[in-house]
Amino acid sequence: MFGLSYLDISAGLGLCATALLTFNFLLGMMLSTGYKRSTYWQKIPGGLKKINIDDLHNQTAYVALVFVMLHPLFLILDHGNKFSVVDVFFPLHAPTQNYIVLLGSLSMYALIIVIITTQKVIKQKISFRTWKNIHLLSYGTALLFIFHGLLMDPLLKNRPTDWLDAEKFLSEACLLVLLSAGIIRYKYYLKNKIANKRTLQ
Ligand code: HEM
């Protein structure tokens, strides 16, 4: 299709999943930091304020999951490599870079667990703390899929990463965005912790 191999499509889907998951994480961080009270949010145009961030956060997670599942599917369809269905779910014997592939598989599992535990029926059965702790797994998941994307050789020839490559640049940019947002989120947590201590004294 348009001169693209299944391997190219697989790489494209992996990159889309990375960008979408990064966006999804930013939305999650907005939700957990009371974004509506922020001066930045109050300054944005009225039309954008109408967006339901909660819904958008859920929807982007579902779309990202579809990309995450299609990414290894196209890898299996590609006849130029020896990846099997088993290698997707249990990559320790994958034909190349098995430990780096494992980071991708673990991210896929973590994403599935977070989505399942957020379904109303399950969420009602577990405590808020348990749900929140499972959700917090996502910070680790982000690091796993970013390093997976950065270190995988798109040609499956076990070549070292070309850090200046445009595709790798996307993962680098996402890493920078996630680290900056993570620092802001941690500062918010510390600020709240100090404020809570003061009200208890
Ligand atoms: C959250 C889940 C995942 C994300 C975000 C993700 C993302 C990525 C990215 C960004 C690349 C690099 C593409 C490039 O540089 O052109 C990549 C490559 C690769 N990924 Fe994943 N991946 C995920 C899960 C998986 C899983 C479950 C497998 C299981 C087989 C896998 C196997 C591979 C392989 C073999 C490559 C190199 C070939 C290619 O580019 O398609 N990934 N992935």
Q: Can you walk through the features of this model?
A:
The structure is a single chain. This protein is mainly α. The chain has one domain (6-78, 96-200). It is 75% helix and 0% strand. The protein has nine helices and no strands. The protein has helices at residues 6-31, 39-43, 46-49, 53-77, 85-89, 98-117, 120-125, 128-151, 166-200. The mean pLDDT is 94. The chain binds protoporphyrin IX containing FE. Protoporphyrin IX containing FE binds at residues 7, 10-11, 14-15, 17-18, 21, 68, 71-72, 75, 87-88, 91, 101, 104-105, 107-108, 111, 145, 148-149, 152, 154, 156, 167-168, 171.
Primary descriptors:
single chain, 201 residues, mainly alpha, 75% helix, binds protoporphyrin IX containing FE
Radius of gyration: 19 Å
The overall pLDDT average reads 94
Count structural domains: 1
* Alpha plus pi helix count: 9
**Broad structural category:** mainly alpha
The percent of residues in helical segments reads: over 70%
Q: How many distinct beta strands? A: 0
Characterize the biggest β-sheet: none
Succession of helices and strands: HHHHHHHHH
Between the first and last Cα atoms, what is the distance in angstroms? 66 Å
Question: Which distinct ligands sit in these coordinates?
Answer: protoporphyrin IX containing FE
What percent strand? Answer: under 5%
Rough outline: globular
Task: State the low-pLDDT regions, or none.
Answer: none
Give a quick summary of the entry.
With about 200 residues, the protein is mainly α.
